[in-house]
Amino acid sequence: MTEPGIIAAEPPNPIVSDLVIMPDIEKRLEAFVRLGHGIVVFPGGAGTAEEILYLLGLLLEPANRALPFPVVFTGPAASREYFDQIHRFIGTTLGAEAQARYQIILDDAAGVARAMVQGLAQVRDHRRHAADSYGFNWLLKIPLAFQLPFKVSHASMRQLQLSHDAPVHERAANLRRAFSGIVAGNVKESGVEAIERHGPFELQGDATIMRPLDELLQSFVAQGRMKLAGAKYTPCYRLVA
Q1: How much of the chain is in helix, strand and coil states, percent to nearest 5?
Q2: Which residue, 39, 50, 170, 229, has fewest beta-carbon neighbours within 10 Å?
Q3: Are 40 and 116 spatial neighbours (Cβ–Cβ below 8 Å)?
Q4: Are strands 39-41 and 237-240 parallel, antiparallel or unpaired?
């Protein structure tokens, strides 16, 4: 499942057999959680962070907190730094409740399989007792903030409320939008053109969010996760506390 901006920036993975192009990133992310029974996350970059924040924002929504939905972060041992940084960032910005909604299992494919099998048993039991579909997650509440497309622009990025004053699920939604803008500025044609015309996007918020955000993004840059292969990365963003 993809969306036009991603397709325009890079071709589908060669192992894809059936391709569905959703109208925007929000519909794509909703499709993942409506059709999925659990999520396994592999190391990526800013786009993967966006997907993680979308998922955690939904799971932290009060109406969804009792829904079983197994989430595992995994990869080879070499991906430890990536997930350590993600884990610290989530703990600092969203708290221990968000960290409790996933497991990190590295370099252990069988362990990931066992964790997902155990989690899916809980999902099946819950859907059976709640008379929910086995093929579509109807009971998951997706607030309007997670459905409406975020139009990336310098103004919309500057207006994001990145504050600990916001409820945790809303905070996750706004952090997701911030990463969506960074992805657009990195690889999507409209975002790249906006950066070329007007300079970097500006994100502003609490220092307690801006500092860990800066550390996370800097780690992505150092690991080569913020640029296309062979290109030197010039930040498309500027952080203001």
Answers
A1: 55, 10, 35
A2: 229
A3: yes
A4: unpaired
The CATH class of 4-130 is alpha beta
Distance of alpha carbon 155 from alpha carbon 160, whole angstroms? 9
pLDDT in tens, 152-192: 999 999 999 999 999 999 999 999 999 999 999 998 889 99
Give me the residues paired with residue 40 across strands. 72
Amino acid at residue number 62: P
Cut 0.70: pTM above it: yes
Cβ(195)–Cβ(185) below 8 Å = yes
For 22-57, the pLDDT digits (tens) are 999 999 999 999 999 999 999 999 999 999 999 999
Residue 228: pLDDT band (50, 70, 90) is: low
- Cβ–Cβ < 8 Å for 48, 226: no
Helices (DSSP H) in 65-149: which residue ranges?
80-93, 96-99, 109-130, 144-147
Angle (CA) 188 213 50, round 5°: 45
What number of other Cβ atoms are within 10 A of residue 151's Cβ? 12
Which amino acid, one-letter code, is at 137?
N
Token representation of residue 200: 């970097």
